[in-house]
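pinned: reference chain
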Amino acid sequence: MTERKQKAGRWTPPDALALPHVIEAIATCSSSRKDLESFLGAVPRSLWTPALAAFLDCNTAMASWVGAEWPRIAVTNTELPTWVLARLAATLPLRPRIEIAHPIQKAAPLASLVGVLGPALVGVSLCFYDYSAVDGQGHTIARLLLQHCPRLRRVSIDAMSYSANDALNFTDEVNDVLAVLTHPHLKHVSINLGARTAAPRLGHLLAVWLSTAPATTLYVVDVAPTDDDTAAAFCDALQGNTTLEDLIIVNVPSFGGFHGRTLPVSLKTLEWKGRDNEVVDNATVTDLATAVGRTQLQKLDCNCFGPLATRPAAAPMLSQLQSLTVHGVNGAHTKALIEGLSSVPALTYLTLRNCSLSSSMELLMEMLATTCIASLHVDDQYLTREDSASVLSGVLQVPRLRALTLSMRLLDVFFVLPELVAAGRQLYSLDLKTIARENAELGKRAIYRALALVHDVPFVTRSLPAAAENFVVSALGRRSDRRHTCRLDL
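pinned: its structure tokens
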């Protein structure tokens, strides 16, 4: 019998494929940078097109200025040498998605980039400060993006005012740059005005964007109060939108709870919060309940969940909600928060941050016992040792719980080791956000040693100290013969 032996070496394409434009077409079908480089590494370099060679240079010769992950190229420095700009231009036949990852503060560097890369530009971050704003910058930047970037999909605008000096001129600059929201193909918009900058046109421009562009993601954070007409225009357009999927409204008092309008049925994620530690008034909560009622939200992040859960209008949304994050609940509303969890029977992921839960953890775990919770995150620096013990012992009452993140003092861990081990026998992941004033590494090493002495310890960890003893490494290292392991992070 004759055996054919293959020689090791480069793959030689059949004659019909041995054409640069064919190789380029195949390469650009790759789903990742790894696949692209693997394919081209097996093809003779003589079959690479100039565009393919230039793209691979992004992570080698040009790595100090750009980074690439097919089909994206991120420009991380706006002051590019001429040769780098030329190499990036050479990639354009591949139709890459180029994003300027470095914040743009002036029109001049943007003009040099847009002049060459504009046809491929999909994302840009703009950042303005009142002490560096120059007359006409906002208008020029918006014009460049509108006229030379037909594929623009994402815009992020940060405008920070630190003084009252020349505030009017700065407001004009911000309003001018907001004209970029009229781009017909924008999908993702993020705006942060630092709570001190007025933007009289913002509501109307967002209304135009929501009504005419394929809007999918909107972040609006820290916007100074505007007039009622502007807020009404925004809320009306939001109600009429059919494409938005993710909405974040944080500290935008003029938008309130959307003033009786409803949110798009297409919405999947909503984050809505006022100022830190602000008590949301009843009228706003009622409006918010009306807004979310007909949506099919998968994720909700808010600081008024307790009162919201009591509003009948919110019930249809809450009945199918899967992920909930609650922030900054004061002690007076802790009970309402816990009772409200009975209104979310499909809830799988729950995050509670600074919710004044001290002395209420046992009640919380009892309520969660009736839910479908699989992941629980409790972040509260004021939890006592008894609170931590209540959470860990309560894990066994929540049969579907598999992942727990809990903030607690490092010293307290020594006093709840039995509860910790019992919880680990059910969980797959236990992340203790330990708080230590000093000697943190010594404390963690001591905890690992104590756990290593437990018979059939359920934990494995990838963060053992370099000086850990062999018996600790043997007990807490990953092994294939274990029936159950819980990843532990301290």
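why pinned: Residues 228-240 form the longest helix (13 residues). DSSP finds 19 helices and 17 strands in the chain.
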